[in-house]
Structure formats: C-alpha cells, structure tokens
Amino acid sequence: MSDSKVKVAVRVRPMNRREMELNTKCVVEMEENQTVLHPPPCSNTSKADNRKGPKVFAFDHCFWSMDENNKAKYAGQEVVFKCLGEGILENAFQGYNACIFAYGQTGSGKSFSMMGSVDVPGLIPRLCGALFGRVSKEENESHTFKVEVSFMEIYNEKVRDLLDPKGSRHTLKVREHKVLGPYVDGLSQLAVTCFEDIESLMSEGNKSRTVAATNMNEESSRSHAVFSIILTQTLYDHQSATSGEKVSKLSLVDLAGSERVSKTGAAGERLKEGSNINKSLTTLGLVISALADQVGGKGKSKFVPYRDSVLTWLLKDNLGGNSKTAMIATISPAGDNYEETLSTLRYADRAKRIVNHAVVNEDPNAKIIRELREEVEKLKDQLSQAEAMKAPELKEKLEESEKLIKDLTVTWEEKLRKTEEIAQDRQKQLESMGISLESSGIKVGDDKCFLVNLNADPALNELLVYYLKDHTRVGADESQDIQLCGIGIQPKHCVIDITAEGDVTLSPIENARTCLNGAVLSVPNSLWHGDRILWGNNHFFRINLPMRKRRDKLKEYESEANRESGTDQDVETASEASSEPDYNYEFAQMEVMMKALSTNDPVQNVVQILEKQYVEEKRNALEEQRLMYERELELLRQQLSPDRLHRHSMERLSFISQTAQQKVKLWSEERDQLFRHSLSKLREQIVKANTLVREANFLAEEMNKQTDYQVTLQIPAANLSANKKRGAIVSEPAIQVRRKGKGTQVWAIEKLENKLIDMRDLYQDWKEKDMVEYYNKILSKHGDPFYEAQENHNLIGVANVFLECLYHDVKLQYAVPIISQQGEVAGRLHVEVMRVSGVVPERPDGGDDSSENSSGSYEVMDNNGEIVHMAKKLTCRVKIKEATGLPLNLSNFVFCQYIFWDHSDQTVAPPMVNPDMPSIRNKAIQYTVTFDHSKDFMLHVTEEFLEFISEGALAIEVWGHRCAGNGKSTWAVDALQAKTRTLRDRWSEVTRRIEMWISVQELNELGEYTAVELTQAKDVNTGGVFQIRQGQSRRIEVSVRPVQHSGTLPLMVEAILSVSIGCITARSIKLQRPLDSYQKEEEEDMDSYQEEDLNDVRERWSDALMKRREYLDEQIQRVINKQEKTEDDVEREARLVEQWVGLTEERNAVLVPAPGSGIPGAPADWVSPPGMEAHIPVLFLDLNADDLRANEQLTGPHAPGVNSILPKEHGSQFFYLPIIKHSEEEVSAVASWDSSVHDSIYLNKVTPQNERIYLIVKTTVQLSHPAAVELVLRKRIAVNIYNKQSFTQSLKRKMSSKNILH
Q1: 980-981-984 Cα angle (round to 5)
Q2: How far is 720 from 638, CA to CA, in rounded Å?
Q3: Quick one: which of 76, 515, 669, 1111 is 20 to 30 A from 1162 by CA?
Q4: pLDDT band at 851; cut points 50, 70, 90
C-alpha cells in the first residue's frame, strides 16, 4: 500500500477578449510553487478588503499561462503534461489506479487543459499518445497490454454513455454491488489497440454529446465528462508457465463550471429550488472538506457523503481511496473574477490535504470472477428455497451477478468485435442525421459547401459538419437530409438550394423559426459565406460557401447601388465588414438577441437612459470638481499677501493647479472605467436573461402552459445592503412571470435557469408521450416548473442600520427606511441598537495599530484618568420594534432576517401575533407590524470589525406575503385610504417638525433672572402675552428641538448661532380678528405663520407632477394608437390610466391638503397646548438630494429661512442680541435684551388696555443633519408692559406655572 496526498496544481489562463476590452487588472501572481491573489484595485472594493492584503497559497505546481511572451515563466501544455501526466502514467503502469480532476469556473481553461485543441493537444490526448507509445516499446512475448476505454457524461444527476449510439438518449443507472462496489450498469467499455482508435472514439463521443446537448439546449459547461482508460498488463513466466495480471484504471474528469457554487447568500438559497445541476459539485466540496478534516485530525470519524451525488459515488476510490490522484485548478487572472478565483484556490487548498491509500491491483479479475461465482451459487441456493414470485429481489440480484460474470469473461477478440459493431452503429446514426465523419473538426475541403455547428463550449464548438447537396432538406422528420430535433424544430423546417450558377438560397417553411444573421426570416433569402443561421430555439450554424465570399457580395451590392432591390436582411448583412471575421457562438447569440430587442423594449430604453444620465452626471460632476479646486486655489492665493507672492509661490500655485487637474482626470478615468464595466455586465446579463426567456416562452407556448416570461429590472437584495461592493449600476435583470388568470411573479435569473432544466425534462416526457412520468413530475413536491402555484414570501425591502453609534455609549433609536427592489421607500423599520458591554477604542486612523497590544486587549483611560486594559470583546444588542407604512399587498406574515457581522447563521425576527386580540378596524394600524425581537451579540473587536462599524451597516431584510392565510389577497381594502396613507408616508420621509420655545426673563427680588408671567388671551394668536415691567433689565432664552414622531427626516440641530429681535408693531384689540390664514384680507394675522416656502414647495411639486403627467399622456396615446392591442397592451393601458388618475388625486391632495393629512400646509385640526401656536409654518431647505455635502453655499444670506418673512416684517429693523451662555444639556441660548436700543415708544411706555405690542424674534441655528446648513427661524411674540404690580397680579404670577411660549 502507498499512502500519498492528492497532488494539486493551479493554472492561470491568459486574459480573454472581454477582459482586455474592459481593461481589467490582473490580480494573480505566481512565484515558483506559490500563488498570490491580490484584492482587485477597483473603486467598488471596500477598504476592508484592501486592508486584508494579498492571499498566498502554496501548491505542488503553479502554471503561469498568462503571458506567452514571458518565456522563462510561461507554462504551456507540454509543461503541464510533464508535471502531472507523466507521473499519472507511471503510476498506471505500476498497477495503481490514477485520476486527474480539472476544477474551475466556466471559461477558466478546464477543457483546454484537459482536451486542448487540434494544434495544441491537452492532457488527455497527450496521456493517451504517451500510453500507446510506451505500450509499443515495452510489449513483448512475456509482457502484453490490453487497453479499454469508456466515456460518460453526468448532467443533472443523470449518466449518459457517450460511446453508445443510444447512450445520448437513454440514461444509465448507477448500481452498487457487494464485490464491484458502485458501477454504471450498461456503460460501454470498448477495446482499443492504438491512439487513433481513442482519438476517433473521443471525437465521435463529443459529436454525440454535442447533438444531445443542442437538442435539449443543455449547457455542457454545467455537465461533468469522465473519460476512463482501463490498462490490463499480463505477465507470462515461461519457465513456470504461470501468468499474472495488473489492472489499473485512469479516470480523467472534466468537472462542470464552479462559478455557481462560489456564489453565496440569496443565490445559494436559490440553488435549493429543485435542480440537481450543482448537486455533484456541492457534494464534491463536502467530500473534500470531510476528508481534509479527517487528515487534519478535526474529525476522525466524520461522515464522508460519497453517496449524496452520482459523481462522488462513482469516483469514491479516487478521493481518499485506492488511487493516485492529481487535481488541476484553473483560474482567471481578471480582477472582476476575484471572488470565483478565491473560491477555487480555497477549494484546491483543501484538496491537497487529502491522503489516498493506493494499492497495486494484481490479478483483480480472477479474484472478482471467483467471488462473483460464489455469490451466484449462494443466490441460486436461496432462490431454490423460495418461490421466484415471492422473492423477485433474489432473482434480480442473480441476474445482475450473472450479467457481470458474462461481461468479465468476454474474450479480448469478442471485445474488439463488439467495439467495431458499436462504431459502425454510431457512424450510421450520425450519417443518417447528415453529420460528416471525415474529420474530428472542420478541416474539410475548401471547395465544398457545408454547415458547421456553433456551441458555447469550445470542446463542442465547430465539431459537427453537415455537407450540403443541391437540394438539402432540414427538419425533425427521418426523411430529411439534415435531421435536427429539439425545441422549435418542425418535421419539415426549411430547404437550402444550390443552383448551377453557385447561388445558395435558404427557404423557410411557414411557422418554422429561422433566423439569418440574427433577423427572423419569413421569405427565401440568398446565403453568403460566413452567414449565421439559427433554426428553432438553439441550433446555431455557420455556413461555409467558398465561392460566395463577403467581398464578392459587396461588389454585387455596389453594382446594384442605383437599383432598389433585395430584402432588409440583405442590406443589413451587406453593410457588415468586408473582412472574413471568425463568427463564433457568442457573436451569433448576441446578434439574435440584439435584433430581437426592438427599440421599444423597455429594458433597452432603461439602459439607454442610464447611458444618457451618466453622461449628464459626469459633466456636472466634473464641473463641480473643477469649481471645488478653483475655490481651493483662490483660498491659497488669498492666504498669500501681494508683497509675499514671490516667484516660488507662483510656481507652487502652478504645481497645485496641475496636481488638481491630474486628480480630476484620474477621478474621471476611474469613474468611466467603473461605469463601462457595470454597463457591460448589465448588457451581458440582459442578453443572458433574454436567451433564457426566449426558451421558456418556446416551451410554454408549445406545451400550452398559458404562461408568459419577460425581462425586467430590479435591485437584488444583496445590492440593497450598504455593505455590498457594487459597481455604478445596482440593478440587475429579473424575470417577470405571468399566467393567465393568476398573479404576476418575479424570479431571479438563477431561478429560471434551474427551472428550465426541469422544464426541458418535462418537455422531453411530453414529446415522447410518456404521460405517466409527465404527470408524476407535475404532481411531485417541486410541482409545475413553469409557474409556482404556492407563492413564496416576497422581499419587501432592506433596512440599513448604520452602526457608528457603537463608538459612543449611546442608544440608537431610529425609524430606518426600508428600500424596495425598485429603489423606493417601502416603509420604516423601527430599530434600536446599543452597546451593552465592552469598550470600542478610538476610530482607526490610517490603520494605526498602536492602541492594540499583544495580550488581546485595549488600553483605555477610565474616569479617574488611569489606564485600564479592556478585553477585545463587545456585546451589542439589536432590538426590532415595529415596521410601519408597509405596502398593502405584502403586509401578511411579515418577518425580518439579518446576519450580524461574522455570525454565519441568519437571525430571524418573527412578528408578534396575539390570537386573543380582537380584529383591528383601523386599517392604518393593520399595516403596522409589531415585533418583540431583542438579541445580544458577543463580538471580537478586530481591525476589520472597527472598519465595519465605521462605514458599514446592519442590513435587515423585511419579507412579506401576498396571501392573508385564507387564500385571498388583501387588495380588497379602501383604495383611497391606501393612496392617502402612501402619500402621507412619502411626505413624512422629507419632513420634520421643530419646536422653538421662547421665554422672557427679568430680575426678581433675589437678584436672579426668572421667566416672566405669560397670560392667555383669545385675541392673541402667538400663544400668549408676556407681562414685562417697564424699564427693567431682561433676557431672552431660546431653545430649539426636533419633535419626535413628526416625520422621519433625520434632522439634528447642533447649535444656536445668533438671536435678533425687531419689527415692533402695535395692534388695537378692536381690530384684531380670529386667526384664519386661508382667508386673504387686507389686515394680516399677527402670528408666526408664512406661506412663502410652502408656495415654493407646492410649485415645484406641481411642476414635477406635470412632467410625470405629460409622460403618462404620451405613453397612453402610444398604446391607444396601436392598431392591434395585445393582452399586455390592454393591461399596460389600464395601469397607465390608473397612474394618471392617481396623479390627479395626488396633485389635488397636495394643493388643497385635508386637515390632519400630514401634508405641509394642511389646516390645523388639533388643540395646541398653552404657549404654542396652532398653525405650523413651512420652511424649505432646498437641498441637493444626490449629494448633501454640496451645500456649502447655504449659509449667511443664502441660508434657508432668510427670506421667509412674516407679515409687517419687510423693511423692519432688527438688533442682534449678545448671547451670554449656551446650555450643555439641550440646544438653547440665553441672550441679553436691552429694549432701549429699539428707541420705540411702544416699549418705553405702559401698554394701554385696548392695545397689543408684537415683536419678531429671529434665531439662526446650525443643522448637522440632513446636511451642514444654517437655518433661520422666526417667532412672533406679544408683550404687555406694565409699571407696578397690584397684589392680585403678584398673586396670579406666583400661582402661574405656564411661563414659556412657543
């Protein structure tokens, strides 16, 4: 026995065309046996990733195939074979089983490393060639060799024989036998005598694989190919007349693309939705982890789940068993594949720890045959004792063992004859389909006309050649010259005619989908060399017409330039480049998609709008950057006085100016690169989504499922998190699923991908009229893959709770906006976050670790000024209280879930449900969901964690269900109330009330300043009348604070900057009228109400609504003008009209708000407390919503509220009062007021009984949130000046407790 670890190699491929076009950076570096992965240097990478630095992995071999020009470092196919293949071959000749795995994401070079190309063969062809080379050298009378091969494909947990003509249509069963272990029942094991035999078998096997994959539109990149070579060595000893055998099995495995497995989060959950496509890779990962843990001593008795997938069960010996195994992991060098590359390297790093226990397989056949015969005899005895009918399982076991004995005792000559028979059958079958067998590729005569297949998999691309006759018929019927089958292929699909003059014409049959160069064809059309043809849904071909080159075509069109002839397709094709480019599968696929997406396609329109918006934003941003740098330069100039502005100063300014320009240029380039990358990725995803949707619609239409699939855009849940590293575009394509008479569902692309696999299976059963299997699948637990009858929960949105409060010992209570996948606010989540125990050090500054010591603690200064060591642990408490303003259609069975920092498990917060509670009649309360969730998290304070709480957020997902529990939707609510509530919530997002309290203070008998008496009067609308004494020294105290639960705008007042008073007005009580600001009369009200800003807000809101209305009018008119309306058009028209009506209602609601509606300017419907005015004025901040930092100009004369003057204020004089002190506990200030500065008769004399004196107090405050701006607040106050207090007045003043005014 030989114990050996799995040999692991890593190979990095060159950049592909797409990566070079995007100018993607290389993030992989290799030095000897080390592979270094650097974080991608993109602006969408978080600081935390950059701080972690590069990741280093060590392997047995590291192959640098990135740059062929670097001769010293470059590792080609020959080097890979020398390092891996030669050792595997040596082990096979010694009698050991051997295996090579190729692992990596799709497009990373797995198939190229394993198979290679005609010019540059890969590991498998080189291994087979070297094997027969050594056999021919070593074979003699006493040492003979026999070689047998098998070739199978594992797709969706089904095994297909690629060497059997019937194997591509029928799936084989995997069985387990006591003697043989797991094996594939019925898998062809064909005898070969030379390398050419293997080459031919592999070529024809790949052709069978291509035909099967194309017919069912299966992605070969998601299937595993296993090529096995069985080498039997027979040793003869002539002296003793004895012989012995050594049998070794070489398994060469090309695994499926691994990129889906590397995705985590939501995509990982979606993989559980019924498809087995990744089951083998997932299980392989679990097997490797379990075996690695066993070797590492973590789990000696850990269960290894070999049986969980077909692949791992069949290759059990190669992983931790009787085999010498090597693994080649292929990776991409590009930065945008960083996550997949890291996942592959980690996978390979675990695999290198596995230890196999290989033994030389001497005389295994004789031993197996002996054991099988013993078992047969035993089974016969058992069967004779029981009746065959009563024990069918014994009979089955007996037949199985007898069949195995028969297979093992077949002579070599019989095996060769059987191989020849199967080869002839396979050739006949391929020829009957019209496929040429002259070559394994397309190296055929230049003078011949033929079709060649196009496939996404390089191993299957351009593998099938179909020669054209003078009259070639194409279709699914057996009578056709070229037989195709699959989705959208008719029995008689089309005809290709070649005339005596050499003209080639393609004539489609009616209702048979044929696309030429991407455009759907309905009439006969001429073909030219290099044209791309699509038949049905997924049969792509390129035509080879040596006598009809594209340049000849252009000359023909030039000669006919003055004549208008030919179809649109001809003209379009003629306009293409005259060169002979290599039109591959991706080009043909993109061509079809781009021509199918008309200019009216809404998703394409969105992409175009994004591009225009980006150009506009870029122009504005560059202008802002330029202005900012100019302001900086101006400040520098001002700092330097004219006499000191020497030459070196000018040079310094010039240098700074150049540096500023370089910064702008660099910033612009980075922004451009990020946008181009994001847009390119979005386009790729849209094309992929449309490809899937096209197939799903084909299947649904053919099977009459009455289901329609369309591509839409939405923001995925992962991109709604503030911690997500994202590009310039956060939206991704999604699939809108509609079934007649049912609701609309939205699926992710991954979900439709997995559903399509089940759809194809179902379609195959339906096509083959296997109705029993068809209905069994429909009624299974997965149900109908075309539409989900039992709808799942829907994501309402994500609430991001920023954790900066953990730096301070304060409790964060905040109504966090829930952002939906459409980018709108879908409610508020009321959350509380606080630090329970532990200490957080000062914010990290440039990664300085000086505060951290080796003992795992932080040095913190306590209240006494002494240094104490605190453990690097922190306990944080998260409370979820309630969700308000949720969408009505998703307000059932609401729950929240989140992952806090490095806690891997999801935390779920269920809603509070009290069955004893009576039904709530108030619908507004009904859509407020209450939670009783409180959880403490113990966290380790690391550098990454400090980075996270400094810039990151806790992303809480809020989920809801459409169904209320009784199967009925909750749409039967009062629609008007729902709209009103939505409007109120939207205004609530951008509003917040502020209270400004004013009190007048005078000296009392004890020499202290106390608040003067405030009396109520019906004729005064300012909240009361201050009673102040004549000629007394006095002060004014102003306090400002936001009102809780008055809106969700995050408004914070930082300080009071100034207090001024003026605009002294006297009013007669007889002329005073009740407050009614909505009746315009000559005499103005004397209170603090003004409508300047309110009118501005209403005007802007009306303009926005009018623009929206114009857009709706245009869209409605477009739909109305359509001659023939589809079901979609009717539905869209109804939605547009509903929006139009809603827009009118919304405009009326804003211009004439109902009392208590919460909309600015709504009449007061409340009883104000003593000292507070009834009506609330509106102040408009007018901030730049896209960038709140770009508001430096909103100070001084441009500050909000400066021009929001009150009646009688215009032209009045104001005096700034000196501020004596500020309060530390609240935002308030006390200012000294000497009324003599006004030189007003009304303040110097005692106020008559029939008169009221009014003044205006102006306060300028500094806001820190939502932006750093100044805000001017006004409050009108009423005062009564008296000379001497009577006993009654004195008693009343002492008894009064109401002494402040708002």
Answers
A1: 85
A2: 45
A3: 1111
A4: very low
- Global pTM? 0.58
Helix (H) or strand (E) holding 129: helix 123-138
Q: What is the 3-state secondary structure (H, E, C) of 1142-1185?
A: HHHHHHHHHHCCCCCCCCCCCCCCCCCCCCCCCCCCCCCCCCCC
Count, in order, helices (H) and strands (E) of the chain: 30, 52
Please give the mean pLDDT across all residues of the chain.
76
How many angstroms separate the Cα of 899 from the Cα of each of 270, 423, 734? 18, 57, 24
Residue labelled with tokens 């990151």: 952
- The full 3-state SS of 1258-1272, as one line of letters, equals EEEEEEEECCCEEEE
Given a contact cutoff of 8 angstroms between Cβ atoms, the answer to whether 465 and 451 are in contact is yes
Task: Mark residue 235 as left, alpha or beta (left: phi above 0; alpha: psi -120 to 50; beta: remaining).
Answer: beta
Pairing state of beta strands 242-254 and 98-104?
A: parallel
H or E stretch at 496: strand 494-498
Q: Quick one: which of 122, 134, 186 has its CA closest to 160?
A: 186
Q: What is the mean pLDDT of residues 84-92?
A: 89
Question: What span, in angstroms and rounded, lies between the C-alpha atoms of 1141 and 7?
Answer: 70
Q: Give residue-wise pLDDT tens across range 1149-1203.
A: 778 887 777 788 888 777 777 788 888 888 888 876 655 554 455 566 778 888 8
Phi and psi torsions of 480, nearest 5°:
-80, 150
Residue 274 confidence class, pLDDT cut points 50, 70, 90: very low
Residues 328-386 have pLDDT tens digits of: 999 999 888 888 898 899 888 888 888 777 777 665 555 555 566 666 666 666 666 55
pLDDT at 337: 85
CA distance 259 to 222: 10
CA–CA gap between residue 923 and residue 973 (Å, rounded): 8
pLDDT at position 1142:
78
Instruction: Collapse the DSSP code of 1003 into the 3-class scheme (helix H, G, I; strand E, B; otherwise coil) and give the result.
Output: strand
- Give the β-pairing of 892-898 and 907-909: antiparallel
What are the φ/ψ torsions at residue 1141 (nearest 5 degrees)? -65, -45
In three-state secondary structure terms, 1045 is coil
SS3 957: strand
Nearest alpha carbon to residue 531 among 504, 559, 558, 492: 504
Work out whether strand 28-31 and strand 465-467 pair parallel, antiparallel, or are unpaired.
unpaired
d(CA 1266, CA 862): 34
Torsion of CA 430, 432, 438, 440, to 10 degrees: -20
In angstroms, the CA 1013 to CA 482 distance is: 103
Residue 403 sits at φ, ψ, to 5 deg, of -65, -40
In eight-state DSSP terms, residue 118 is S
The half-sphere exposure of 931 on its side-chain side, counting CA atoms within 13 A, is: 24
881-898 per-residue burial string, b: 16 or more CB within 10 A, e: under 16:
bbbbbbbbbbbbbbbbeb
Q: What number of residues does the chain have?
A: 1302
Angle at 1232 (CA atoms; ends 1231, 1238), nearest 5 degrees:
115
What pLDDT was estimated at residue 261? 42
Q: Are 486 and 213 in contact (CB under 8 A)?
A: no
What strand order describes the sheet that includes 1228-1233? Answer: 1009-1011, 994-1003, 1034-1042, 1228-1233, 1219-1222
**Cβ atoms 1231, 1217 nearer than 8 A:** yes
Closest CA relative to residue 1065, chosen from 1204, 1237, 1208, 1206: 1208
What's the CA angle centered on 351, arms 345 and 355, to 5 degrees?
155
| Helical (H) or strand (E) element with 650 | helix 647-702
DSSP 723: T
Buried b (16+ CB within 10 A) or exposed e, 8-47: bbbbbbebeeebeebebbbbbbbeeeebebbbbebeeebe
